[in-house]
Design a protein that fits this description.
Largest sheet: 7 strands, parallel
CATH class of the largest domain: Alpha Beta
Helix content: 25-40%
Shape: globular
Structural class: alpha/beta
Strand content: 15-25%
Strand order of the largest sheet: 3-2-1-4-5-6-7
Radius of gyration: 19 Å
Number of domains: 2
Number of helices: 13
CATH superfamily of the largest domain: Glycogen Phosphorylase B
């Protein structure tokens, strides 16, 4: 089959790397497009994915997002229409791909693991032929998006347990980012300020920078989502804060760290999958996956910077690895 995959956010190269590998190994022809947003293109290169850049992010406003959606969807339509016909298309929470796939009558798969991104799912779920999510998301939460029993497929566990199944960390990652392994290494992910579903002010993040930024026993490696966030962090010139100049191997950095603190989702769940202690500072509506992780104690909610426990972590925890062939089979079953 000819399969089209679209990457629209920095987490997606890690998500699709093993899927692309397995699809190609099985003889399928796979072409990949990517949105020029944050470090998506750089991370695709790090993951060994040759992706064609099409379109950019629309910014923080709903109007900007709608204009970007129209412009990028048109560009993808022109690109896909000029290619030999695709048999299947897949993306993780993309708006553009389901629109274009429906217009070109290509069966589409919509994967995601956070159910409250309403703008995305009202489009993606309704236009996709198949919707694939973790089983921690209650099915009744997806019905309003048009993802009923005939369309919905669920898998056990975290997506990161599948996509990191063969992951082995780069032993030189701390040296690459300039972190001292003799210090406690904390990885911070900035809040998703460009996301429509995360409009709430997040004071914990600023307090964390104040607490960690001058601690001589800590190296806080901050991974900004946007260029303006990186510029602001560098202007602060906090002595214990490191802001990498380029995209880094996120899973390797997480694996080498003692603690992860993020206001988003994917990096938190990478930490859980890799056995690294992790706090969430997310201020939006909690999704089913994180609700389950909080109940199980695998994720902790951080409401005050003073509550964070800064210490060396236990590195003997075993990882749970799941075979990504299950996800591949769910995707391919869309046209079966």
């Amino acid at each position: 089959m000819r399969i089209w995959i679209d990457l629209s956010a920095p987490a997606h190269p890690v998500v699709f790397r093993p899927l692309v590998q397995r699809l190609r190994a099985a003889g399928h022809e796979v072409e990949v497009t990517a949105r020029d947003f944050a470090q998506t293109l750089e991370l695709a290169q790090l993951a060994g994915i040759d992706a064609l850049a099409v379109g950019a992010h629309g910014g923080r406003s709903a109007g900007g997002k709608l204009r970007s959606l129209a412009g990028r969807s048109t560009a993808l339509w022109r690109w896909a229409r000029g290619r030999p016909r695709f048999d299947l298309a897949a993306a993780h929470g993309s708006n553009d791909l389901p629109i274009v796939a429906r217009a070109l009558r290509i069966p589409a798969v919509d994967l995601f693991d956070y159910e409250w991104a309403t703008f995305q799912h009202m489009i993606g779920c309704r236009l996709a032929r198949r919707v694939i999510v973790p089983d921690a998301i209650p099915p009744e939460r997806l019905r309003r998006y048009g993802a009923g029993p005939r369309k919905l497929r669920r898998y056990p566990g975290l997506k990161e347990e599948y996509f990191l199944h063969d992951f082995e960390p780069d032993p030189g990652i701390l040296e690459q980012v300039g972190a001292d392994p003799r210090r406690i290494v904390v990885v911070l992910r900035t809040p998703p300020t460009a996301a429509l579903y995360h409009r709430v002010h997040n004071p914990v993040y600023a307090d964390l920078l104040d607490r960690l930024g001058s601690d001589p026993d800590v190296h806080a490696v901050v991974l900004p989502r946007l260029r303006e966030q990186a510029d602001e962090l560098r202007r602060l010139a906090l002595p214990s804060v490191i802001v990498p100049e380029h995209a880094v191997d996120g899973p390797s950095l997480v694996s080498a760290s003692d603690l992860v603190i993020s206001a988003g989702g994917s990096m938190n769940r990478e930490a859980v999958a890799l056995g690294v202690p992790v706090y969430t500072t997310f201020q939006g509506r909690m999704g089913g996956v994180d609700e389950k992780l909080l109940r199980e104690g695998r994720l902790r909610r951080l409401e005050r910077a003073s509550d964070v426990e800064i210490r060396r972590r236990d590195r003997t925890a075993e990882r749970l690895r799941r075979d990504p062939q299950l996800i591949v089979d769910l995707i391919l079953g869309t046209v079966g």
